[in-house]
Amino acid sequence: MSKNILYIAMSLDGMIAKEDHSLDWLLKAEGEGDNGYNDFYSGISSIVMGNRTYQEVLKMTNEKPYQDRPVYVLSRTEQGDGYANFTSESVDTLLSSLQEKHGGPVWVVGGGEVIKACMDSDSIDEYYIAVISCVLGEGIPLFPKGTKCTELKLVDTEVYNQIVMLHYVKKQAE
Amino acid sequence: MSKNILYIAMSLDGMIAKEDHSLDWLLKAEGEGDNGYNDFYSGISSIVMGNRTYQEVLKMTNEKPYQDRPVYVLSRTEQGDGYANFTSESVDTLLSSLQEKHGGPVWVVGGGEVIKACMDSDSIDEYYIAVISCVLGEGIPLFPKGTKCTELKLVDTEVYNQIVMLHYVKKQAE
């Protein structure tokens, strides 16, 4: 079954970036190999993120990111850059349409507001959350205040040196 | 070596209680056996917590909590209840004195403000953080905003059904 997957790293206090958007704490995290990234990436068929996240990703590389997968960027105002597909569609209808169009799991990259919208509409089927061994004390939270209260089901954990990958699925109504 | 240990549960988004202090999400967490609690508890020699946490703990039981260990409650105003030892000492000097007095690890129970003060003074030597499989979306954070940015060293993880126990130690300066 196709599904929407959140795959992301956070500090132990639940931040995905410092207040100034910096990721130095994440880049210096001591992992192991590629921390399972290639295995994950090989299984996904398209990529969705918010525009702010996309702009941050662009800053981190000279090449267009994720060139071998269709990239969708959620934005109410931006019209596109000739590379990514910009859309102002609501995230839940977008995710359904990508399931049909590309026939495989969608990677929801972030950031917090996109994730919040996904959780509001129960659109995330799987969660891979890499917990980094540090407390930031400030920053941009993975789950912003007001995120829908959500029970998950733990299916697996994996340790990559100093990184703990927590793997959850959506809890089915019982 | 004696040490100060934080042993606590949090939601995946880093909350130790809901906004109204309720712990229903924690009490219904599906663990395994006692989730390692008795093993941990048998190794500690005294217990420290903030007064708000102490008052919440009192509400949860008809008996005085932790009767077989000396209990210390940090409060600037309270004078004691004939059971716990109330003190307005700063948490770092209190923890050092308990190490000497009781000669074994101190359990720092919480809450957030006490933990923040401990981290400000680098007083926590070990962290056991039980991650519960739910996102609350609001509540009282384990690491309040402004907690000192702190790198930790992961030493172990343990899975108890739906609870992941993350075990860290203080990262030594290199």
Automatic annotation (TrEMBL), chains A, B:
Record domain Bacterial bifunctional deaminase-reductase C-terminal: where: 5-162
Domain of life assignment: Bacteria
Residue spans crossing the bilayer: none
Coiled-coil stretches noted in the UniProt entry, renumbered to this chain: none
Molecular-function GO terms, alphabetical: 5-amino-6-(5-phosphoribosylamino)uracil reductase activity
GO biological process, one term: riboflavin biosynthetic process
PANTHER family: 2,5-DIAMINO-6-RIBOSYLAMINO-4(3H)-PYRIMIDINONE 5'-PHOSPHATE REDUCTASE, DIHYDROFOLATE REDUCTASE FAMILY PROTEIN (AFU_ORTHOLOGUE AFUA_8G06820)
Protein name listed in UniProt: Bacterial bifunctional deaminase-reductase C-terminal domain-containing protein
Organism in which the protein naturally occurs: Jeotgalibacillus malaysiensis
